[in-house]
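User: Modeling request: complex.
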Amino acid sequence: MTRRVLLIDDNADVREIARLSLELTADVEVDTAGSGREGLRKATASPPDAILLDVHMPELDGPATLRFLRDDPRTEGVPVVFITARVQASEREGYEALGVSGVLEKPFDPVRIGPALAAILGW
Amino acid sequence: MSANRGSSATAAGTERPGTPDRSLPAVNRLLGGVVRAGPRWPPRWTEEEREATRGLLLVVAVALVLLSLVFTDPAAVELGPTLVVLGALLVTAFLSRRLERSAVWSRTSGILLVALLAVLVAETGGHESHFEDLYLLVLVFTAAFRSTLRFAEIAVLTLLAIGAPFSYAGFDADDLADLLVDAPMWFLAAGIVHLLVQQFHRSARERDLATQELRSLFAHHPDAVLRLTLDGSVEERNEAAEHLLGPVERLVGAALPSERDRVDALLAIAGTGTPGTAETVLRRTTGEPCDVQLVIVPILAEGGIVGVYAVARDISTRRDAERMRDQFIAVASHELRTPLTAVHGAIGLLASGLVDPSSDRGRQTLSIAASNTERLVRLVSDLLDLERLESGSATLQLEDHPAQDLVDQALATVAPQAEARRLDVRSDVDTPTVRCDGDRIVQTLTNLVGNAVKFSAPGGSIEVSVAAAHGEAVFRVVDHGRGVPDDHVDTIFDRFAQVEPADADRGSGLGLPICRTIVRQHGGRVWVERTSGGGSTFCFTLPDAPGTER
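Assistant: Request completed. Predicted assembly structure:
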């Protein structure tokens, strides 16, 4: 069964490469958003099976977007995976404490990102 | 310009070489303002201390006289001569107060007293005098209580010692034998007292000196130094501690609540006799936190730990620099990882065969890889450039350059982009030459004009001008684009500052910081203004005598 993933990242090139990689390495259909605000609009309009969320974004960053997602009854149950260029052990623990299902690192391996996401979400 | 140079040369010429200015302001200019005016050093005895010492000496002298009188035959004591002796002692003591500054008087007053007594002894019976023992006692102690004796003094005292008893007419062979037997004993006594006095003087002086040196170290140490009891109450604090922490009563009370356990632990360790150190945060008198390096040293005395010294060094400047560096590394690594993610992903997709390179999707993926590689290259070279400029390893090559040439070179570099956007770029140069590092100023102008091109609407216009004002050359790059919002005016020259997220795709985020560093190295200023009617005007100045950072 093809699952729907919403990818929120402020960099257009990263969005495009991540979308391609996910669709080619996992049975998913990827919708993208270029900001936290746009992501929230798309997620509430049609809740996806999972959300891949960039941590470092201007204005509404990853953690802030996550709070809005959790506060909204339409998206509170959607699993969220952070994707970030800043990963240190302490930060990873901090992210997990926010209640995300997992953290993916940038730069990612395009061949393995799909299986990695599926493993995190238990698909 | 030339008038300024002339006057500064004259001022420098009148300064005598080889006599460095050691006034407090001059020293502080050298050391960056770390020295504060302290109390006068070394400390002088106060008048009260001097009076107390004098009184004590007088009491001792009178007591000695009375004691010697008690041990002579009471029946034989004549009141008159005794009063003369007491009077002489008092007069000597009081006179010496007036004459204390006279070295001759301080050395001769004792001998005068002895001479006075010698006359008394001779008048009252010489060898048979009741005052002979008192006389010898004063004589011996006059000699002994000096930490140093001169040959003349020894000679005078010896003559007096022998002369007075001899002055009695009935002095015979038995008396001479007695004197010869007694003399060695007196000399021995005098020698021992002299040695003891000398020792006492020396150790007291050394102790005083050591105490004064330690007090000076404590009082004038630029770090905050507090003397604490073992339970952490402040007993004493130096000037720097007063300045940093104010009238704090407990060291733990000065720590931020989150840091109290750490300070407590240090004090507990000190209680076992072990010194400890930690970086922690104390509160300033003003309430704001201050990063300090705290050193706790137990004070070992009398076979136990009697207290603790706490030394707090203000390290807030270093910590601020570390925080800025950490933040810069975090931002820079994010800025580098983002294009790297795109390149790595794109090439991985093509290399693994997931995307066919000859397909449309393949060509699009390749172009993402290419543009992000370019961005990486630009970022890395800008980072290195900025690093070189800020570390000071890139020195300025100052020469006189025609201002028109500098502007023309910059405009030629951005001409292709400007033409592509059909922009009208004009220049108005009002200053013949400027003294600067030509390459660096062209780089600055190219950057600013390049930004103006990027942020101008197609078909718009850009004006570049150079004018002289107040001994400076003022460069202006005027565009009519979207402008810089007011809340970005102060931060736009910071590293990786972008007004809009999408701007990151247009530049490295390091162009303006590089411009600012170059201009500041020249001793100029750089700022942004609002262009009337919309858009922004980036300005910078170059002083006539560049190279001194402001």
